[in-house]
Q: What sequence folds into this?
């Protein structure tokens, strides 16, 4: 494999605490090595006046699977003005808010991303998720199966059976080639199967007589019992509703009860996703206001929590979530088309197109809250930038979100030119914040932080010798930082170089190699569990519509697997 | 010694039963018996060993007869036809695997083909309606476990999806439906008394062509508004009565078929059926589902969607963008307007399903048909390339009518030397590359 040495660039790497110093980065056999280890024939890349970071890691996006694809095909209008072929080794790319698999892979790569986590995989549809991951070029991917409304989980946790819960999680991860434990609207989505919902953490789930608080706590305990690389990854109850920050704080406090236990260097027990949607005050959309400060005061004080922002980008987009009742509710607000799928024994999903308009106060307030969360975050290693793609906006807008965070002038220009600017400034605290995120902090928020939260910090998210050679080089000169947000946006949209596994995949924004993408999943060994085996057999015999023998994801769906194996057999 | 293969997926209809058991000879060559499948499904498996099966490509001769040719010759002829044509209709895909579709789309993107599947003459109108208003739906297991109100509207699963009723919709006992059939109320809306109607508690005979009006009346009744004395031949008292029963249920579902998609109103019929379903969600839980026909037509829509963003009729003829416009990029219309100059049929039989004018149009163009069987399309083709049967002689992914993907199983070996769809398409793709590189 080729050797490279990247010279004269400014390196930003929280893993080694390098804050923009000039340092040569050497690559050999797909790994980063000491500069002395490459031969004289190593190809030299001149990165003078450029910024070097590890490949960015997406911790939460809906990029593959049944609801993403339903969003694609039931919105042909999303492609009408956006289907094209760019120069380079590419296929046709299409779609604005829900790009096709090809566009998804290329666009992430062009922005310097080398990994994306599909945020919600219904186990029954795992094969679909993996078929799409298979077809997505360049980037590594993994998927989180959803557990928060699964009948097995509800039944085990009703009786506080943590060991059985853990054994079942291990079985599902193995069957679905899944990465960790996702929770979406715990209990609420099961209630939705009867057209109901759970709006606080103490609302009982119909029939199962368990509360969301019990589900979340139990899944956290099971997650730590297994010692999985990632913590539970939670989309909380009561998403998107005014006044929901109280439910959010109640949920976050559940993390105080559990201690992290794993061999992956992960410190949190809960990852709270798209927190922007959960930080609303007020009693109705008429008087909705930001509670980002209150939520962040708590998050800053509890090191057992990581979160991602869910920044609103002020675009037309397509909302999609396993929070079925929320999408039904959203449809009643905007009266656009509504797609829903309830999945037997496991979960549900809904999809509704949505236009975030700068002229609508609620949307502008949402925009401000997303930015406030990141700007109030004291530890950039626990705060990650997302748009909950495509829910608050497409991931292709990350460069713009970064420009708002890194340039107060750009941010304030946007804030002050909203149609109802006075109202937005009054209901939020954004105007009072002058913090600008630095390149070093950004590297933590998009590289080292997500890698640590996902339990991948040994090999990813940094530029230390020995780590995987996933490297992004941007046309940003830290000695002469851009003064305009749009310059940041341009630079972050098109890398000068993207190395993936030590190979140049993107050069000057053009895809030159489709790389060899890998599928990450976690294989946990647990003690044989007769109870869980019995329950699996019974549920497939009686209640599932497929046989157990046809449930798992065949190996050839993921030709290049990165399997994280761990032993959770307890004596 | 024979052996039994379990959990076999039936490659016939969109019900995609996955509990078939097949006894095969110990040399993996012959199917001895088929258990659990319906009559049509069993026939599909038994088909493999019918005498007279074509196992090598056949090329049309000047005198109209077919002559056996090698796979290499067939691949070469096909690739040349694709490369030379300006616009090729690549139709079918509904009876092959998603893996094969992926290779096919790669070819289509290079040569500027139009990829269409049999939704174009089937549930295409449902897809259009869903693009207009969305759809509240669920997996079939949800129906089994929860549904207590089931409506079959313009569909006849007793004949078209024979095990649908026993596996999912009428008879099974589920978690919250322990009484099975007794706990469900079944409605059948049709213009004639079908065998499905015989299984229903209530048969509602709608006057032919009045489905839209009747669905509209259900919506009107649900809102408590005034109805005329009869709508589509159904007395208003009946309509009010049924709507109250539906509202009183815990979980309702509408299954619909060609009776809605291909009668007057077409996509508008589906549109209003979905609107009724949405309305009913204000009172109880309600879902609706299309009874997809071919076993993997849903899969073709899925693969096209994740690769190009549209579920059928995807026009790649510009090579740099994907277009989709019903009526413009749909097969029947393209053929009738003579807008394509070659036809590539795979895993579906347009000769049997398309209007005669489009079949005549197809017969006048260079046409290749890739299909395990002799069918009406092979008989108007210049080249027939037989392949192994997906789901019987080779595995591959398929999507059920509720979009649940299931990997089908290989049960027996294909006849010696026969290629699978993936193998054949990969060879064609490679040959296309060679030809285009030389151009």
A:
């Amino acid at each position: 494999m080729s050797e490279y040495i990247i010279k004269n660039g400014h390196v930003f790497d929280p893993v080694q605490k390098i804050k923009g110093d000039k340092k040569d980065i050497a690559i050999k056999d797909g790994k980063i090595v000491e500069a002395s280890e490459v031969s004289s024939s190593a190809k030299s890349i001149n990165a003078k006046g450029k910024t070097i970071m590890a490949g960015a890691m997406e911790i939460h996006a809906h990029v593959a699977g049944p609801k993403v694809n339903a969003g694609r095909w039931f919105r042909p209008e999303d492609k009408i003005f956006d289907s094209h072929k760019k120069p380079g080794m590419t296929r046709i790319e299409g779609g604005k808010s829900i790009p096709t698999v090809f566009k998804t892979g290329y666009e992430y790569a062009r922005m310097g991303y080398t990994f994306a986590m599909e945020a919600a995989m219904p186990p029954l549809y795992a094969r679909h998720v993996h078929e799409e991951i298979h077809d997505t070029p360049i980037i590594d991917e993994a998927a989180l199966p959803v557990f928060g409304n699964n009948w097995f989980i509800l039944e085990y946790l009703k009786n506080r059976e943590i060991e059985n819960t853990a054994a079942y999680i291990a079985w599902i991860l193995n069957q679905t080639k899944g990465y960790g434990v996702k929770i979406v609207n715990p209990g609420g989505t099961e209630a939705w199967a009867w057209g109901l919902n759970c709006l606080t953490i103490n609302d009982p789930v119909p029939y199962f007589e368990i509360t969301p608080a019990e589900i979340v706590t139990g899944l956290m305990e099971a997650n730590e019992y297994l010692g999985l690389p990632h913590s539970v990854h939670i989309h909380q109850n009561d998403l998107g509703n005014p006044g929901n920050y109280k439910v959010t704080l109640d949920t976050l406090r559940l993390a105080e009860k559990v201690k992290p236990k794993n061999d992956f260097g992960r410190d949190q027990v809960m990852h709270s996703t798209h927190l922007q949607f959960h930080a609303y005050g007020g009693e109705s959309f008429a008087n909705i206001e930001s509670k980002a400060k209150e939520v962040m005061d708590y998050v800053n004080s509890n090191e057992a929590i990581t979160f991602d922002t869910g920044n609103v980008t002020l675009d037309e987009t397509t909302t999609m979530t396993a929070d079925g009742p929320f999408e039904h509710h959203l449809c009643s607000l905007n009266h656009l088309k509504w797609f829903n799928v309830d999945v037997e024994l496991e979960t549900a999903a809904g999809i509704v197109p949505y236009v975030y308009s700068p002229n609508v106060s609620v949307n502008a307030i949402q925009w401000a809250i997303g930015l406030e969360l990141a700007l109030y975050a004291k530890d950039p290693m626990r705060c990650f930038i997302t748009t909950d793609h495509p829910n608050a906006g497409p991931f292709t807008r990350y460069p713009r979100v970064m420009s708002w965070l890194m340039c107060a002038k750009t941010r304030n220009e946007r804030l002050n030119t909203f149609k109802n600017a006075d109202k937005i400034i009054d209901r939020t605290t954004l105007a009072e914040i002058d913090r600008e995120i630095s390149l070093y902090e950004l590297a933590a928020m998009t590289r080292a932080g997500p890698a640590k939260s996902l339990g991948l910090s040994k090999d990813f998210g940094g530029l230390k010798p020995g780590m995987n050679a996933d490297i992004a080089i941007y046309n940003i000169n830290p000695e002469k930082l851009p003064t305009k947000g749009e310059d940041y946006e341009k630079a972050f949209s098109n890398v000068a170089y993207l190395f993936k596994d030590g190979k140049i995949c993107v050069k000057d924004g053009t895809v030159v190699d489709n790389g060899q993408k890998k599928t990450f999943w976690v294989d946990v060994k647990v003690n044989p569990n007769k109870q869980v085996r019995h329950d699996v057999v019974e549920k497939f015999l009686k209640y599932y519509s497929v046989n157990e023998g046809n449930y798992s994801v065949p190996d050839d769906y993921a030709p290049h697997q990165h399997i994280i194996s761990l032993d959770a057999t307890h004596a | 010694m024979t052996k039994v293969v379990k959990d076999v997926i039936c490659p016939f209809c969109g019900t995609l039963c996955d509990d078939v058991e097949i006894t095969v000879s110990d040399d993996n060559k012959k199917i001895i018996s088929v258990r659990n499948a319906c009559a049509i499904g069993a026939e599909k498996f038994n088909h493999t060993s019918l005498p007279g099966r074509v196992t090598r490509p056949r090329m049309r001769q000047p005198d109209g007869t077919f002559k056996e040719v090698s796979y290499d010759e067939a691949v070469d002829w096909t690739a040349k036809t694709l490369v030379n044509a300006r616009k090729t209709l690549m139709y079918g895909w509904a009876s092959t695997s998603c893996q094969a579709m992926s290779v096919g789309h790669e070819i289509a993107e290079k040569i500027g083909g139009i990829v269409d599947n049999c939704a174009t003459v089937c549930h295409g109108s449902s897809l259009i309606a869903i693009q207009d208003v969305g759809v509240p739906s669920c997996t079939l297991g949800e129906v089994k476990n929860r549904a207590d109100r089931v409506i079959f509207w313009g569909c006849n699963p007793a004949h078209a999806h024979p095990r649908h009723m026993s596996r999912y919709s009428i008879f099974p006992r589920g978690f919250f439906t322990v009484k099975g059939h007794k706990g469900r109320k079944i409605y059948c809306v049709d213009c004639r008394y079908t065998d499905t109607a015989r299984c229903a508690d209530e048969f509602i005979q709608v006057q032919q062509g009045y489905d839209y009006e009747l669905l509209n009346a259900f919506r009107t009744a649900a809102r408590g508004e005034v109805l005329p004395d009869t709508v589509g031949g159904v007395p208003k008292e009946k309509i009010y009565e049924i709507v109250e029963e539906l509202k009183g249920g815990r979980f309702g579902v509408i299954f619909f078929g060609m009776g809605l998609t291909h009668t007057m109103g077409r996509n508008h019929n589906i549109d209003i059926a979905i609107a009724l379903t949405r309305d009913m969600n204000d009172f109880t839980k309600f879902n609706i589902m299309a009874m997809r026909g071919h076993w993997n037509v849903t899969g073709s829509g899925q693969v096209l969607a994740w690769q190009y963003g549209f579920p059928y009729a995807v026009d790649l003829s510009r090579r740099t963008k994907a277009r989709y416009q019903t009526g413009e990029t749909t097969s029947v219309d393209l053929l009738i307007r003579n807008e394509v100059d070659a036809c590539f049929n795979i895993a579906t039989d347009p000769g049997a399903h398309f209007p005669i004018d489009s079949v005549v149009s197809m017969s006048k163009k260079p046409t290749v048909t890739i299909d395990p069987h002799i069918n009406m399309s092979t008989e108007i083709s210049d080249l027939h390339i037989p392949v192994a049967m997906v789901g019987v002689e080779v595995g591959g992914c398929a999507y059920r009518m509720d979009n649940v993907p299931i990997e089908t199983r290989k049960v027996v070996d294909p006849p010696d030397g026969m290629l699978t769809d993936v193998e054949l398409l990969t060879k064609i793709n490679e040959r296309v590359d060679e030809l285009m590189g030389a151009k």
User: Anything to note?
Assistant: The CA atoms of residues 293 and 376 of chain A lie 7 Å apart.
